[in-house]
Amino acid sequence: MTDPTNPRRISRPRIILMVAIDVVAVAIAIALYMWLLPRDPDAAVLGAISPLVFGAFFNLVIALVSLKP
Q: How far apart are CA 14 and CA 11, in angstroms?
């Protein structure tokens, strides 16, 4: 007989942390893009993408740690 278990969910504080990480990543991406655009447009694009990827990685880590069995 199986025991009914609660569905695995991400808690509200962790969701707030994930949103805060996203906001900081977007702010850094915009700042780097604006700062690098006059100097080198290609570097500005890479400078905007890298904080977004870093933020997505941290969100993935938080989600995987929250949902571990």
A: 5
pTM for the predicted model, two decimal places: 0.82
Which tokens go with 27? 């702010």
Helical H segments across 1-69, by residue range: 12-36, 41-66
Instruction: State the amino acid at position 4 in one-letter form.
Output: P
Q: CA nearest 47: which of 38, 34, 56, 60? A: 34
Structure tokens at 6: 């609660």
Burial degree of 25 (CB within 10 A; 0-12, 13-18, 19+): buried
Q: Which residues contact 9 (CB under 8 A, 6 or more apart)?
A: 66
User: In this model, does residue 40 exceed pLDDT 90?
Assistant: yes
